[in-house]
Amino acid sequence: MTVLGCTKKSAVNSLSNSPEDSLSSYLTKANDFGATTKKRQEYIQKAFNIVIEQDNDSLQRTNLFRIANRYYNLNDWNKYREIANIVLQKAKISRDSLSMAKAYSYLGDYYGSQGVSDSAFVNYFKSEKQYLNLKENYNASRTRLNIALLQFNESDLLGSEISVFKALKAIKGETANDIVYESNNLLGLIYNELGEFAKAIEYHNKALQGLDKAPTPIEFQSRATSLNNLGLVYQNLNKDKQAIPYFEEGLKQKQDILLYKPPLYAMLLDNLGYSRFKLKEKKGLPGLFYESLRLRDSLKLTTGIIVNQIRLSEYFAAQGDKVKASKYSNEAMITAKNSKNKRNYLLPLKQLAIIEPTKATEYNKEYIHINDSLQKADRKIADKFSRIEYETDEIKQENTDLTVQNRNLVYIFGGILILGLFLYIIKAQKAKNRELLYKQEQQKANEEIYNLMISQQNDVETIRVIEKKRVAQELHDGVLGRMFGVRMNLDSLNKFNDELASEQRDSYLTELKNIEQDIREISHDLSREKSDLINNFVAIVEKLLEEQKKTFKAKLVSSIDSTIKWDLMSNAIKINLYRVVQESIQNINKYANARNIKVEFKKGNNELFLHISDDGVGFNVKKKKKGIGLQNMLSRINECEGTFEIQSKKGEGTKIMVAVPIKKS
Prior knowledge:
Blueprint: H1 21-30, H2 37-51, H3 58-73, H4 77-94, H5 97-113, H6 117-133, H7 137-153, H8 157-170, H9 177-194, H10 197-213, H11 222-236, H12 240-250, H13 254-260, H14 262-278, H15 287-299, H16 302-318, H17 322-339, H18 346-355, H19 360-493, H20 499-534, H21 536-551, E1 555-560, H22 571-592, E2 596-603, E3 607-614, H23 621-624, H24 628-639, E4 643-648, E5 654-661
Parallel strand pairs: 1-2
Antiparallel strand pairs: 2-3, 3-5, 4-5
Helix pairs in contact: 1-2, 2-3, 3-4, 4-5, 5-6, 5-7, 6-7, 6-19, 7-8, 7-9, 8-9, 9-10, 9-11, 10-11, 11-12, 11-14, 12-14, 13-14, 14-15, 14-16, 15-16, 16-17, 16-18, 17-18, 18-19, 19-20, 19-21, 21-22, 22-24
């Protein structure tokens, strides 16, 4: 049994500065190798409960990886996989390629531990490609090394060798002592299995020399690992005297090995015992085998248990105790069957053929059959790894092609969008130009109305001047002359007191009354003239309505509330109301075929109401609401901050109702 030099998830590297003191404390305690497994699991769960409530950001994903590392160090593979999947999903949502690559690597660890080599290879391969795309050379190399170890465990030795050199190539020119050590260590294991023992010793010595230059953390127990592997090469060379010092040197750090890597301690005990057994030394035997078996059994290391049981069978066979030899061989076979791994059958079958000669032919036949099937399976798994790598590259190429296609589609749609936006801008600009032209025409029309009002004002002013002259003449020639005559006659009558004088006085008083009445009439005329002056807007509207009556057959009835104070209203309101009346009458003349038209101006509380109705053919308001005439009227009333409503049905005439707030000019 051989192992690599480092565990992947170290206690030292897993600690970082966390903003939550409790989280940092839980993670630290979870990595206390001196605590019980149950206690460490409790701390990991508490840390997880804190982290899972955090936002999905890089800090949360980092903390989840730290929690996964704690489960890895406890060999709790199910929890390890669960956390890796959580991180993977969160990384995909956040499009965090680096975390995705790391999560794939962790899933590769899980499937590798469960013996599902194809799934492990797929995940490692995805991880490696992600790291290469991100130019994360160190992590890409680390993942390629994991692939190499997976291939080694599946007896794809040549594939493993190639993967190791790919891992070294990825970090060429960089400082990565841990990867260099593990690569040299794995190459030593590969060449040992291939029977190239000189190369195996060379690479294991390179690994040890690397440790002298750059020691690894104590929990890796890298030196003890390399010493065990070197001793194993010499053991395979049947140079057990040279092998034993390596095993003994490795066991000198008993406490640290038992704390951090108990499987390695069991392996060193077993290998030391076996080399002494081969040299027929009795020191520590069979105690070394028993101690190793007991430790492996507690760790549930199936393959190691079988090896120990076979070693005990060999030992007791050499001692002449065939009963115990047979007992341990059969126990090894039972353990192999329970493991459901055909590879574990080989050592028990080989040993049983020796222990039970009468059944040797049967055992050897089964051994050959299983060995052949395993060799075929090894070739298949090697081919499968190559096929997975090829198919993954094919998928990647397809994804690249799809990316190019998607990019081209984006360009096309982008071009169409820009063209559409350009056309929309042109159309919007034309609409703005039309609106500006309309406003200009409206302004021109308003100016015409204003000029009309000024002209009307001038006409009224001219009439007012003529009327003032007339009144002045009346006063001068009529009233003043008559008053002067009456005054002179009254002065002359003051000298007489007879009856005749009294009658004449009465007649002159009557004349004064007549003069008073004339003055009153002149005053009334002046009052009417002032009213006409003030209500010149009314005159303009009435002129429009008079023109309508003269030109068209329809009967027009108008009503203008005399209480409306037009002088308090702004010119803008007057102009817009005039235009609404004008537009409405034009529409009635064009389309309504009406016999009767009614126009009303009414005063309300702070509002002026305009109602225009006809008994014409009517129309569908919903279909006509977008007509330019109606839109113009609506626009004018909106400008006055008023309301505009139109009611009409076919055959029932039309009614327009306008309400505008009265604003002082």
